[in-house]
Structure formats: C-alpha cells, structure tokens
Write a structure and sequence with these properties.
- The protein has 178 residues and is mainly alpha-helical.
- It has one domain.
- The protein is built from five helices and two strands.
- It has a two-stranded antiparallel ribbon with strand order 1-2.
- The model has no long low-confidence stretch (mean pLDDT 93).
Length: 178
C-alpha cells in the first residue's frame, strides 16, 4: 500500500515538468525523484499516471490543489494534454490486450495488471470522448475479460474502493480465473 507522501511526491514532481512534458513528443517521461523508504519505484510521467495518482491521493486527503493545477494547465495546454492522453490510451490498451491474450499465468498478476485497464478508464473519463475504434477495442477487451472474470471483492487496498465505484470500475471487483 502506498502512502499519501508517495502519491504527493509523484504529483509534485510531475507538475514541476508537466509543461515541458506536454510540449515534447515523449509519451513516457522519466521523473527524477526518489520514492519514500519501503515504497516501489515511481512510474514514468504520463497523463494516466497523473490521473491515477490524483485519484489515489483523494483517498487520504481532501486537498484539491492538484486538481486545480491540472484544470489551470488544461486551460493553456489542453490540446497537448488530450493528444498525449489519446496516445496513452492506445499504449495502455495494447498492454492490456496482450495480458488478456496470454493463455496461462494470468490470475496471479491480475491485481497489478488491471492497472492498465483502470488507466484506460480514467483517461476515457478525462477526455470525455474517445474515437469509436478505440471504444470498440475496449469493448472487445472487456468481452474477453468477462469470459474469464469471477466477480468478487475489490482487488486493491480497501481505502481506495470508494474512489473506484463498481459501476464504472467493475474489473476491480473480482479476479480472473486460471
């Protein structure tokens, strides 16, 4: 389980370089930050990771500073943000599809790999409208997942459950069968 300090450090580092990142052609931007002791290494900067870290931080604090900063940034750099987000949906969806198509050993890694599907959902919600071809691929991947999915308890830390309602994030409420 990550700490609020872990989430906050990522977001502070991300917002420090977000304009430079958005102007670049790079989708995965390395952040030069050290994680708190006992925490996993930080992922690279992407719009989806920013949205995920913001959502996770909401579980522990009601501060909306990062949401306000993102709204302000989108006022000036919204087209750049959208372009990166659309590229990231494609990349995350490819990773998710590849995971779903592996014939064995999927179940033990589900709670970690489902992160790709969560980020696709967060980006889709943020953009508001995704291309029909992408929506079709998401639907196909969801159909494939449902064939091997067993509904059950929330797979991430319980304090995050209110932030990921079952209606939109049904894939976090269960497990994939072997």
């Amino acid at each position: 389980m990550s700490s609020p300090e872990y989430e906050r450090r990522y977001l502070e580092a991300a917002f420090d370089v977000l304009q430079d990142y958005l102007r670049s052609e790079t989708l995965y931007w390395p952040l030069n930050i050290k994680q708190p002791r006992g925490e996993p290494p930080y992922p690279q900067l992407t719009p989806g990771n920013v949205l995920l870290f913001m959502r996770r931080l909401q579980a522990s604090e009601a501060d909306t500073t990062f949401q306000q900063r993102l709204a302000e940034l989108k006022t000036q750099w919204g087209a750049h943000w959208a372009k990166k987000a659309e590229r990231e949906i494609q990349a995350r969806l490819r990773q998710w599809e590849a995971y779903l198509q592996e014939p064995t050993e999927r179940a033990p890694y589900y709670r970690y790999k489902v992160r790709e599907r969560v980020i696709v959902q967060l980006l889709s919600e943020d953009l508001g409208d995704i291309p029909a071809a992408v929506a079709s691929r998401v639907a196909q991947a969801d159909h494939l997942l449902r064939q091997a999915f067993v509904p059950g308890p929330f797979v991430w830390e319980s304090h995050l459950q209110p932030l990921f309602p079952e209606e939109a994030y049904w894939f976090l409420y269960g497990q994939i069968k072997d």
